[in-house]
């Protein structure tokens, strides 16, 4: 969503000067609300993914609290957590459509005490708390992984190791790419009431571009850090081999009466690949 809708909206505003956000109050409120919900939701879900990987590592150590960690890794717990986090992000940002307004061609928080409180809230919940939480959880995960390697029969598979590395790398890049924008945003909007220089506007645009690089780098990050994802990507690219066999199978079908059996075999083949891919995710 950040990469498609968010970047498209910013391109209209900064590149083509379609300043709907600075002219229509309702559009200003709605856009800023969903933008902040999306940013907070991404950080919270990534933090929960780090906690999930930590729980999986602790589960493999056969500790006395193993059953508790197993319950944290179930599908039901995951779905419930995603739903609760989504509701939390929607509720905690409800103040934005209420107190945001257009002031001096800027769609931002109402000047005064609320702006100060919002800047502090944004700095803590968007710039400081999520990266620090991810770093702390991932460091704890690395420590537990080192302990697992000392076991005679470790129960964490190579694929799960790859997934743990992926979550750690994603957390690090998320902190590196989003922290400059959040800090610069805090400084930039504190100068809105004064004369904002062109250098400040340029720095804001550059840090915004870096922030939008975060969702775009996900694919390259996955393929560079995890062998399992690369294998799945290569298998997906090998789909041409399957499509090349379709004309041959069609000719065979015209000479036989096993049309239903072949179709069932093909459906089962794709279903097994789909289940395997979803299990990897």
UniProtKB/TrEMBL annotation:
Segments forming a coiled coil: none
The keyword Cell membrane is annotated on this UniProt entry: yes
Matching InterPro entries: GPCR_Rhodpsn (IPR000276), GPCR_Rhodpsn_7TM (IPR017452)
Domain of life: Eukaryota
Subcellular location: Cell membrane
Transmembrane segments: 39-57, 78-100, 120-143, 163-183, 203-225
Primary residence: membrane
GO cellular component assignments: neuron projection; plasma membrane
Residue ranges of every copy of the G-protein coupled receptors family 1 profile domain listed in the record: 1-222
GO biological process, one term: neuropeptide signaling pathway
Record keywords: Cell membrane, G-protein coupled receptor, Membrane, Receptor, Signal, Transducer, Transmembrane, Transmembrane helix
GO MF, any single term: neuropeptide binding
Membrane topology: Multi-pass membrane protein
Name assigned to this protein: G-protein coupled receptors family 1 profile domain-containing protein
């Amino acid at each position: 969503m950040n990469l498609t809708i968010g970047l498209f909206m910013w391109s209209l505003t900064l590149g083509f000067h379609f300043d709907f956000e600075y002219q229509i109050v309702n559009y200003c409120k709605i856009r800023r609300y969903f933008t902040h919900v999306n940013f907070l939701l991404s950080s919270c879900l990534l933090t929960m993914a780090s906690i999930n990987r930590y729980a999986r590592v602790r589960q493999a150590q056969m500790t006395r609290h193993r059953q508790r960690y197993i319950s944290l890794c179930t599908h039901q717990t995951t779905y419930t957590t995603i739903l609760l986090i989504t509701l939390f992000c929607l509720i905690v940002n409800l103040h934005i459509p209420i107190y945001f307004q257009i002031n001096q061609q800027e769609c931002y928080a109402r000047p005064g005490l609320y702006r100060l409180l919002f800047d502090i809230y944004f700095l803590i919940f968007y710039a400081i708390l999520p990266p620090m939480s991810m770093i702390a959880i991932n460091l704890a995960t690395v420590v537990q992984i080192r302990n697992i390697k000392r076991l005679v029969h470790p129960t964490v598979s190579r694929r799960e190791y790859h997934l743990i590395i992926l979550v750690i790398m994603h957390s690090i890049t998320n902190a590196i790419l989003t922290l400059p924008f959040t800090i610069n945003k805090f400084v930039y909007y504190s100068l809105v009431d004064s004369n904002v220089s062109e250098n400040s506007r340029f720095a804001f645009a550059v840090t915004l571009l870096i922030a939008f690089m975060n969702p775009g780098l996900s694919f390259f990050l996955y393929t560079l850090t995890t062998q399992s994802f690369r294998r799945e990507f290569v298998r997906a690219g090998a789909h041409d081999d399957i499509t090349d066999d379709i004309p041959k199978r069609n000719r065979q079908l015209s000479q036989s009466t096993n049309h239903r059996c072949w179709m069932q075999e093909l459906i089962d083949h794709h279903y097994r690949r789909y289940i395997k891919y979803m299990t990897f995710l």
